[in-house]
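Quick review question:
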C-alpha cells in the first residue's frame, strides 16, 4: 500500500481508538507494476525475469513480512521506450502501484524514469544496463549490472592477460551498446591497448546480417574483437558469423561481455563457442551452494531442460530486494523509504555476494572471467578463470561522461 492510502487508513484507525490500540500489525497489499518484454523477439528475456521473480516469491513466502504482493504485468514489447512509458503511466495513475519493477531494455527504463520521479514511485531495475540510468531519477535502484561491470575489466584483461595490443569493437547501436564499447575502450586503452575499429551494428530490434561488419574487422586484423549485442538470438548469430568468416583462423580473438554467451543460448552455439572468453557476473554453471540450490529449484519449477540465465537472476535478486523493502517499511511503501531500505542492502545471490551502493543506488558484485568449455557429458559449460571481487560500477567510480554528471 502507498503512503497516501496508509495515512488515510491511519486517520480512520485514529478515529476508532479501540481498534487503534488493539489492532495487530496490519497485513498490507503491495502492488508491483512489472514492465517486461512478454511478446516479440525479446519475449524470452521477459520470461526469464518473470520466472526469476515468481520463483523467489514461491520459495520465500516468509520474506515478505506477512504482506500480500500483487504483480500487475505489462508488456513493453520492444526496446523503443514509448510502450514502456505508456505502461508505466497507466500503472502509476490507474493501478496506483507501489513499486515499479522489471525493464529489460535501457531505452524503456530511460523513458520511464521521469514518471517514477513525478509519481514518487520506486523503480527496481532488473536488467537495463546503461551505466547512468540511476542518475535519471532519485527513485531508481538497480539489481542487475552496468555495462561497465563487464566491458571495463574485459578491456584490461584483453590487454594484460590475453596479450591483445589492438582491438576492434562492434556493438548494437543503442545506449547500452555504446556504453559497453566505451567501457571496453576505457579499460583497454588505459591498460596500453589501442582501439583501431569501432563499428555500430544496427539497432536492437532485428538481428542484422553481421557479415559486412565482421568482414570490416577481419580486414582491419586486430588482435581482439570485442562484441556487445543484447543477448538472445543476436548472440547466436555473432558466434556463427565469426566462425563462418574464419576469423579465429585469421588470428582474431572474439571477446565480450557474458551477454554473448548467455546460458539459454549456449547449447545452440556448438563448437564455435568453445574457448571463448567473456566477462560476466553469472552463469548457471557456477558450482556454489546458493547457485546449485537456485538451479535445482528452477528446474523443478520449469522443467529439466530449462536453464536460468543472468536475466533470471536479475528477477530473483530484484524480488529479494523488494521483499526487503516491503518488510523494512512494514508494507507501507514510499519512494524515499524504499531507497533508504535498499541503501547498502546485501544479499547472497546465485551470482555471489551483492550489495546496493548507497552512493549510486547501483549494484556492487563480482565480475568473473568466463571460458566456454565442452563438458564430459557433451554439454557446453562455463569455467571461471578468475574473479574481480565486488566491483562498484567503474563508470561512476571514474566519473566518465554522463556518469560524471555531464
Ligand atoms: C539493455 O538494453 O540495457 C540490455 C539489453 C540486453 C542485454 C544487456 C543490456 O543483454
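Suggested answer, residue by residue:
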Amino acid at each position: 500500500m502507498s503512503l497516501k492510502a496508509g495515512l488515510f487508513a491511519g486517520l480512520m484507525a485514529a478515529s476508532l481508538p479501540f481498534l487503534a490500540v488493539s489492532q495487530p500489525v496490519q497485513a498490507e497489499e503491495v502492488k508491483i507494476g512489472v514492465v517486461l518484454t512478454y511478446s516479440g523477439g525479446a519475449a524470452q528475456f521477459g520470461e526469464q525475469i518473470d520466472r526469476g521473480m515468481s520463483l523467489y516469491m514461491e520459495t520465500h513466502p516468509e520474506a515478505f513480512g506477512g504482506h500480500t504482493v500483487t504483480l500487475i504485468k505489462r508488456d513493453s514489447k520492444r526496446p523503443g521506450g514509448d510502450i514502456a512509458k505508456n505502461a508505466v503511466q497507466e500503472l502509476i495513475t490507474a493501478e496506483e502501484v507501489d513499486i515499479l519493477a522489471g525493464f529489460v531494455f535501457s531505452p524503456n527504463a530511460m523513458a520511464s524514469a521521469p514518471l517514477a520521479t513525478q509519481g514518487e514511485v520506486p523503480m527496481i531495475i532488473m536488467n537495463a544496463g546503461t551505466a547512468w540510468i540511476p542518475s535519471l531519477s532519485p527513485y531508481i535502484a538497480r539489481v542487475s549490472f552496468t555495462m561497465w561491470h563487464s566491458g571495463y575489466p574485459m578491456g584490461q584483461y584483453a590487454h594484460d592477460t590475453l596479450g591483445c595490443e589492438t582491438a576492434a569493437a562492434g556493438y548494437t547501436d543503442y545506449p547500452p551498446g555504446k556504453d559497453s564499447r566505451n567501457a571496453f575502450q576505457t579499460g583497454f586503452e588505459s591498460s596500453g591497448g589501442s582501439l583501431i575499429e569501432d563499428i555500430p551494428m544496427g539497432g536492437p530490434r532485428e538481428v542484422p546480417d553481421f557479415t559486412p561488419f565482421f568482414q570490416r574487422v577481419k580486414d582491419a586484423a586486430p588482435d581482439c574483437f570485442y562484441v556487445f549485442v543484447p543477448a538472445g538470438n543476436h548472440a547466436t548469430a555473432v558466434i556463427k558469423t565469426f566462425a563462418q568468416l574464419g576469423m579465429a583462423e585469421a588470428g582474431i580473438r572474439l571477446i565480450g561481455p557474458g551477454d554473448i554467451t548467455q546460458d539459454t543460448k549456449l547449447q545452440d552455439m556448438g563448437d564455435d563457442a568453445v574457448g571463448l572468453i567473456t566477462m560476466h557476473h553469472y552463469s548457471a554453471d557456477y558450482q556454489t551452494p546458493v547457485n546449485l540450490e537456485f538451479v535445482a529449484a528452477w528446474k523443478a519449477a520449469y522443467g529439466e531442460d530449462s536453464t536460468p540465465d543472468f536475466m533470471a537472476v536479475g528477477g530473483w535478486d530484484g524480488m529479494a530486494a523488494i521483499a526487503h523493502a516491503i518488510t523494512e517499511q512494514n508494507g507501507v511503501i514510499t519512494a524515499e523509504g524504499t531507497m533508504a531500505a535498499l541503501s547498502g542492502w546485501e544479499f547472497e545471490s546465485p551470482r555471489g555476494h551483492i550489495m546496493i551502493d548507497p552512493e549510486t543506488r547501483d549494484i556492487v558484485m563480482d565480475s568473473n572471467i568466463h571460458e566456454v568449455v565442452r563438458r564430459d557429458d557433451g554439454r557446453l559449460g562455463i569455467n571461471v578463470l578468475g574473479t574481480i571481487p565486488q566491483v562498484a560500477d567503474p563508470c561512476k567510480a571514474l566519473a566518465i561522461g554522463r556518469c560524471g554528471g555531464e
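Why it works: The first strand starts at residue 29 and ends at 36. Confidence is low (pLDDT under 50) at residues 10-24.
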